[in-house]
Amino acid sequence: MPLYRRRSPKNSCVATLSVLVFVTFFTGMVYLTSTRWRHYISTPEYATWGDRASTAVTHTINDHIYFSSFDGQSVYTNRGMTGGCNKRAPHSLEYEMLRKVRLEVIMFLATKGGNFYTKDNCRHIRYRDVPGVGVEVDVVCRRPELTLAERVTVLYPLQASLVTLHTQVATTERINIIMPLKGRPEIFKLFLNNLQKVIASGNVKVGLTVVCFFDKYTEDNRLAFLEAAKNMTDLQTHFIELPQQSFSRSKALNVGVEQSEIEGEVVFLCDVDVLFTSDFLLRCLTMPVQNHQVFFPIVFSQYNPELVFSLFGKKVPPPLDTLFIDDHSGFWRLWGHGMVCLYKSDFLKISGLNSARNGWGGEDLKFLEKTSKMKYYKIIRSLDYGLFHIYHPKDCKDVGQGMMWSCKSLQAMSEASNVDFGLWFFRKGYNSSLWGILKTEEEWERKVSDEWDRKVDVEWERNAADEQEREVDGKLEEVQEEDIIPAPSRAQPNLNTHLCSVT
C-alpha cells in the first residue's frame, strides 16, 4: 500500500481552505492577545515584508529615501528647511493628510482588535514620498494604561497620470530683464560680461532695461551699458535714469516694467548681483502662463570665495568660473522671492510692488503674498540650478524698516557653510592643522609619508650623534688613563655633541 495517496482537486481545495481559515483564526488570536509589537499592512495582498514601498526603495545609505517625522505639532524633515531650523510647522495640505491617515488608523484598530485610541494616543507618525509608488505613512499608537503598542503602515498609492497643462512658447519671444541699479559699477560690469556670454549661446532673445538711481557712479554705469549694447547687437536695451533720491527697489521695478520700450511680454525681475545661464532664461520664458502662473525661482547664493577656496588651499578663480553648485560653494536662498518671471500684463494686473517702500528687503515677500491672494494665479517655486547670487560684502544700511535682523542674519550665513566656518575657526582660533581634513587622500598619504620620513631622518641623526658622543667619551677615557690631558669639567658643555643633538 503506498505511503502517500494523491488527493482529488476537490479535496485539495477543501484542505487549502481549511488551512487558510485556521491561519486567519490563529492570526486573529495572536492579534488579540499578544503584547509585542506587531506589523500589519492594511491591504491584504501586500501583507508581507515585501510591500510595494519597501521593494521600490533601495536600502543603501546613499540611495535610501528617509522618513520625515511628525509629533502632532511639528514636522522634522530630512529636506531643506524654509524656516532655517531643524523643525517646522506642517503645511496645511500636509497636516490634512496626516490628520486623515491618523483617523483612518484609529478606525482600523477599533474594528480590528477592539482597541479605541484618541489622536493624542497616535501622535507618532513617520512618512515619506516614494517616487513611482506613493506616500508611505507609519503610525504608532499607545494608550498609557495598556501594555502594548500598535503600529500600522498605510500606503497611499499614486493615481494614474493626468496631463494638466500643455503650452507652446515661441523661443523667438524676447525676455525683458528689469534691473534696479545704484552704484556698484564693478558688479554691473560683471553682470554685463555674463549677459554677453549668455546671448552668444543663441538660446533665447534678451532685452535689458536698467533703472538707475543717480549717484556718482551713474556715468560709469551708463558708459558700461552703452559699450555692452554696442558689443551685443542682438540685445535690445533701455536705460532709465531717475533723479537723485533714496534707493527703492520696488519703485525701480515698477518704473522699469511700466516704461520699458523693449518688445517682450515676459519680464524677468532681476538684481545686478544675480548671474544666470542661458538655460535658466529658457525656463524663465516657458514657466509663466499668462493669467494663470507666476514663476518665483529660488536662487543659489554663493559663499565668500576668499574664505572657502583658501581653506582648501586653492586659488580663487574668476567670478564667471564659480557658477557651480556643491555643499561648500553656497546655499539655496529659500526665503528669497525677489527673482520673478511673469507676463507684463500679469504684473500690471497684480498692481506691481509697493513704490512707497524704500530700500530693499520685504518688498518681494509682499509681492508674493499679493499674487497668492489672487486665486487664479498658480505660484511656481523651485530651486533653479542656473541662477546664482554672487557673493559680495553685504551692506545693511539701506534695508527697509524692520529688516535689519534679517539682513544681519543673511550677512552671517553668506560667508561659509557650518562645516567650513568650523574648520576656519579651528585653524584661526586654535592654530590647528587642517591639511589632513581638507586635502585629498593622495595628499594626505603623501603628507604622512613625508612626515614619517622626516621623523626617521631626525631619529637617525640623533642615533648617529649618540654614537659619536659615545666614541668621543671612549677616546677621552683612554686619554685620561694615559694621563696626557685632564678630564673635561662637567660644567663645560661639549659643543660638538650639543650641536649634533639638535641637528
From TrEMBL:
Family matches, as PANTHER family: CHONDROITIN SYNTHASE, HEXOSYLTRANSFERASE
Matching Pfam families: CHGN (PF05679)
Keywords associated with the record: Golgi apparatus, Membrane, Signal-anchor, Transferase, Transmembrane, Transmembrane helix
Keyword Cell inner membrane listed: no
Protein name: Hexosyltransferase
One GO CC term, this protein: Golgi cisterna membrane
Membrane recorded as keyword: yes
InterPro entries for the chain: Chond_GalNAc, CS_glycosyltransferase, Nucleotide-diphossugar_trans
Highest taxon listed in the record's lineage: Eukaryota
Primary location class: Golgi
Membrane topology: Single-pass type II membrane protein
Ranges that cross the membrane: 12-32
Molecular function as annotated in GO: glucuronosyl-N-acetylgalactosaminyl-proteoglycan 4-beta-N-acetylgalactosaminyltransferase activity
Family, as annotated: Belongs to the chondroitin N-acetylgalactosaminyltransferase family.
Organism for this UniProt entry: Petrolisthes cinctipes (Flat porcelain crab)
Subcellular location: Golgi apparatus, Golgi stack membrane
The protein's Enzyme Commission number: 2.4.1.-
Enzyme type, top EC level: transferase
